[in-house]
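Q: My labmate handed me this sequence with no annotations at all. I'd like to see what the chain might look like in three dimensions before we decide whether it's worth expressing. Could you predict it?
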Amino acid sequence: MTVTNAANTLASKASAAASSMVAAVAKPYQLQLQHLISSDGTRLPLHAIGEGEPVLMLHAFGMDARQFLPFVLPLAKQFRFYLPHFRGFGLAAGTPSTEPDFIEQYADDVSVLLDYICDKHQTDAVDVAGISMGALVMWAHFARYAQSEDPILNLATGHKVRRYLNIDQSPIVHNQPDWQGGVFGDKQPEVFARFEQVLQQVLPYITPEAQSSEQQQLGLLTSGLQRSSFEKQAIDFQHLPFAVKRQITRLETDFSLMSVAKPASRLFIQSTSRLPDHKLALYQHPTWRQKLHGLQAYLQLPYDYRAALPATDIPVTLLIGAQSTLYDPSWQRKLATLLPQAEVVEVLGSGHAIPLDAPIRFTQALKTFLM
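A: Here is what I predict for the chain of 371 residues:
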């Protein structure tokens, strides 16, 4: 009996030790979900994974933050990655942005995130990577400090970013006489006209009661930019007229196709976005309101953060898709001449969506930036 008990004890200890070892090995790869409270009281979903120095990753338009996981997992033993879901996308699909200027509202949320991460890790600043729309949000964040008259906010580290990885994004959306590096380059008028066409098809199905008297006084009704036009919709996506739904999904697919350069990426987008009529009829589309809200804002608001460039005195890596048709690489390279500390890294053969067109190269670039 004594021998049996001793054997059982040893077996239990060995099992516990094995479980402990498995837990230790698996710990960096455990995806954790929490919620932060924004400045307006909204619960913001935030995923975190890894151990070590904190890194904030900001996702693109229409992207789910968890799509970063294949690229950050190889680095999870050295870094703790924070992956927030922007309002209206990913796990926050049910919480669309409530302000006409959704980029500035996202920038508010990023400030809350940076405060939380810095407090949690007892650090003054963290590394940040932003791709596409997420990168535009960071330029909005930097612009607040560049333009502030408050000497405290003007401190170089006041924005709480130590180093910044800007992934294929310009700090300006609309082309200007002195800057033709806006979104879609010389095709911008053509693409924006299509955005406007789709928006005009959808607006009649948005609840008119959502328009406030203040906005009417500001004349925003005629411009189509309303505080709650996409915050409240008259009907669900699946109950929109079929032709309107088809226009929206075709626009999404075409936008995605413009973001890539490689045939394999195009084939992937075409195969995953294909919706036969019978599927589209019942399709649940949780992000459609936020996407159209975003397109509306891109059309109506200037989004010019170039003033932030000379004041962003931290190391900035400009990761550029050499075949990007969303943001002309030659104009992106000009950013390096306007930033105090900039390095340019071009990914040959890649379009705007570098993680999809060149996943291995993107992982290498992220690792180089962090290491």
